[in-house]
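Can you make up a polypeptide sequence alongside its tokenized fold?
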Amino acid sequence: MRLRLLACVCLTAGVVACAESAKLPFSAGVGAEPALPLPNKTLIPTVDIAPAKGWPAGMTPVAAAGLKVVAFANGLDHPRWLYVLPNGDVLVAETNRPAVSEGSNRGGLRKWLMKRVMARAGAAVPSANRITLLRDADGDGVAETRSVFLQGLHSPFGMALIDNDLFVANADAIVRFPYTTGAGVVNSRAGVKVVDLPAGVNHHWTKNLLASRDGTRLYASVGSNSNVGENGMAAEEGRAAIWEVDAKAGTKRPFASGLRNPNGLAWEPKTGALWTVVNERDELGSDLVPDYLTSVVDGGFYGWPYSYWGQHVDARVQPPRPDLVAAAIKPDYALGTHVAPLGLTTSEGAALPSRYASGMIIGQHGSWNRRPLSGYSVVFVPFRDGKPSGLPSDVLTGFVNANGEAYGRPVGVAIDKRGALLVADDVGNTIWAVSSAEAVP
């Protein structure tokens, strides 16, 4: 049975306050104008998570109608992120949070509870700290060879290639390595630090990268060091933000802020705008706050921690900042509460049925702070004229079984050279390849 550490606390002898659950249908928290009910705060967080089980032999996720899914590679060690090189080789970051974090004794009961939750979710394994190269030489959709491409890294995540330089985002810095087309291994000692990234307690440790179209800049996502600033705003310096990095000069500047935990980054092909998916704050109830997909404007502030979905004030944050709340930008599109969107890619270049021709594909890692569960799926959001248009549709489901156990959890997504969708599954330790059920010209 799934882990249910019910938020039940003995207030007085014989008096118990029990955990809450969603009152609204999941669909109410999806779209450009999601429902935003009053917060439903509990003394101890609602915890409902699908414990990690792994895939039984021969089983795969369930592909939507018109699609098929096969294992591109399996037997990996907590694969989180993907990057497709120009020659078709696929890089996989096998990684997890840093083994030791500054301020690791903070948090008390809540931190103890979260450690237990993450362990059951399969997120407590040591980090392999490496990037593995997968090669599908015959183009049949299954990688025949793999090699350790880079090792000895520090919780690596995002990757980006500019000319002959491969940039890797560790938990605390961007590092540059020389790359030669077709190379199966890179000397880790050849790495050169480009710029530091905010680190420390690492409540959110993942750092993603996206190169600009002209290759002169990198965009790095940095999550917050807390849920809603409870460690003090000094600990949030430079965090909950997207940074713009000059790849050659090694300098950086804040590009956008107030984004609690941005992960996936993508360029929208029609407008050229930067888009991201963001994990919003927890512990306001199963119906709050919707995670979201949004365009990102230079200099924009998106509310965290002082407000959510524009000007909805979070009263837990003290002292308040009405000046920042007034400036907060409302996100473009809600994905639903607590779905934990991590992976993001435009469908541009995908050899999938025509209904996926224009839009964004999102890997949703799945909820822990909502009853019933949400996320644990890969979805497609259709776009028109550079903006979301219509409801999300499932691409891959079936990650949670009838007993509430997680066979897998989707994270990074990418389109490979053949046009197939690749999905990193960090519980199933597999890279899934999704393609059209029939040949697409």
Q: What stands out?
A: The radius of gyration is 21 Å. The chain has a mean pLDDT of 92. The chain is about 5% helix and 35% strand.
